[in-house]
Amino acid sequence: MRKPLVAVVFALAVAGAGAAPAVAAPVSAEPAAKAQTKAAAPTLQAVNLAGTVALSNCSGSVIRFPNSLDTDPALVLSNGHCLTSGFLDPGEVVTNQTSTRTFGLLNSAGTRVATLRASKLAYATMTDTDVSIYQLTSTYATIKSSYGISALTVQATHPTAGTAITVASGYWKTLYNCNIDGFVYRLKEGDWTWKDSVRYTSACQTIGGTSGSPVIDQSTGKVVAVNNTGNEDGQTCTENNPCEVDASGNVTVREGINYAQEIYQIPACFTTGNQLNLNASACTLPKP
Q1: Domains in the chain, start-ordered, CATH in brackets?
Q2: Structural element, H or E, at residue 145
Q3: Residue 148 and residue 144: Cα distance in Å, rounded?
Q4: DSSP 269
Q5: pLDDT of 149-189, one tens digit each?
Q6: What CA–CA distance (Å, rounded) separates 109 from 28?
Q7: Spatial distance between the Cα atoms of 259 and 175, rounded to a whole number of angstroms
Q8: DSSP 45
């Protein structure tokens, strides 16, 4: 997880960096697109901030699954460690908990166009993955007709190494462009362990407040992961300094490298009406 956001804001103020991190790319996917053109990569989309949201302490996005209907209540994806109640314990899973949390909805230019409200926290955990999913009081159709913004679709298959991606932070209104460098058998940070995590190439220098950002495949526009952490100080397996553990137990520390958690397994756990069903046959998310 990232350091508390208050600490990040203070550090930026002391450094004279203002509200926007100097390491971030501008609100445009153009730099990554140009780099990929030289390698004859697939046609890349101009990823922007439309459909992302700003939480009080993190980032997120309005998402839908391949089988979601326009009339379904919309969902917001973020991290499990972004809950207002604080970090969840290892093994802890929260389901269908009443919530009135609000989210600032952004358009393509990063302008806040609406405040969306949750009706419940449908699912949250920091075990095996680091995810929270809120159900909203608005449907996809309502959001589209009122604000002209469509939800981002979650990819229901495993992401691929080398894919050009954009980490879209609604909190900072900033895009970070890089590639998927590879996958981590186990990513350990403090008391928490995550499975099959996404590792970015070094260009994605995400910071506090980017937690919960959608990781978007630049060739499809689909969400393939949710941004959640990075090794800040080169320490081993401590908070804000995750370490990689392979299947043989070997530990690797990559200072300055950042990570995300996969979400392709989530659609199988939501059924008709975007309702959570952890007992669905294909659902592999941790259960309470």
Answers
A1: 5-43+157-262 (2.40.10.10), 52-153+270-276 (2.40.10)
A2: helix 140-147
A3: 5
A4: G
A5: 999 999 999 999 999 999 999 999 999 999 999 999 999 99
A6: 9
A7: 15
A8: P
